[in-house]
Specification:
Length: 428
Amino acid sequence: MRFVTYEQFKGGLLDALNLEELLAKLSEFLLESGFAGSLPWNPYTGDFDPVDRDDSLQALKEAILRALMEEGLLTPEMLEAMRGDGDPDPDTMKEIGDALDHIVQRLLEEGYLRVEQPPQMPDEGQPLSGPGSIGQGAARSVKFELTEKTLDFLGHRALRDLLGSRGRASVGMHETQHLATGVEAEAHSRPYEFGDTMNLDVPATLRNTIGRTGLEFPLDIDYRDLRVHQSSYRSSCATVLMLDCSHSMILYGEDRFTPAKKVALALAHLLRTQFPGDTMRCVLFHDHAEEIPLSALARAQVGPYHTNTAEGLRIARGILRAERKEMKQVIMITDGKPSAISLPDGRVYKNSMGLDHEILRQTLSEVAACRREGITINTFMLARNPALVAFVRKVAEICRGKAYFTTTVTLGQYILMDYMRRRTRRVR
């Protein structure tokens, strides 16, 4: 029988473990949504009140252990102990526990995690309750939080996965696995007009001259032969990302909210690295609506039940009114019809049966107000009910925005590509 000590395991595999690759594999666990209570974001305490989301160190260790098993980084003895065939060897189980403690400690030291209190690791003599239950008593009582460093990294990976390594397009700034040759051209050249920047399209200009006079030297280039390249004018943009977190976003066997959070992090990373003059804020809407900081997005959960689109648009409009940007837009991700509105006395009127006339009227009134203030609404609908399709098309018609009917798989690509197309506009 071959004996493997923890020191050998630590010095070999664990120290060489790439923490960023590990975090990428843990992204689903780190961003998973779950159901919240009646108020997912408490504006008075500045925190979430999770109900069934497990953000304890013990849950993190279990997720790390699954990732190590998938990567084949456990020794045969450890795998045998994890399978639970017979009585697990206490020494092997201790090796597993020490290895997970070491990984968590590295994540803490390198600034990827923070905890509410210093983690209390089990004593060496503390009995283990069974296969895989490593230090549950201490680790269950310690909660972890993601740092800005981790959120930015997860945004970077989400952006790379959504826009990179996908295709062979010859024009673009994103990395792919393919190589291409050629020169990036933004548009066809056009005839020169007085006042244009003298960015000559030399081949086209020479073709015009030769076509007019023939191949005679010296060439008699005339004013009308000149052609200039067109370029893109890059304007600044203020964006509010509206995320539907009503219960339907995680019901019916599909989690639609976690992919939406990944898109938000990817878009935030894109703005920070490629468009630093742009701004992005985040609004959640359910029975009510509220703005949350991007740093709190990873812990956001779905709930309560209904979809107060009107209040979400009203808050987004207030945010954008204070922004001094040339472009203002709302990106709304939802999977359901408006089913709630806020009344003047603070109560919420709800009706989940069909498209309620009063709810629809107030929602479209907010859409019209956005248009009057120069705000474009681009809606990304994750469902295809005929009534929903008609509602989304009406929103696009009123505010001159776009409507996309997509899935959780293509949502990110649609949003990011649409954002970058709108980020530039053609000038002469």
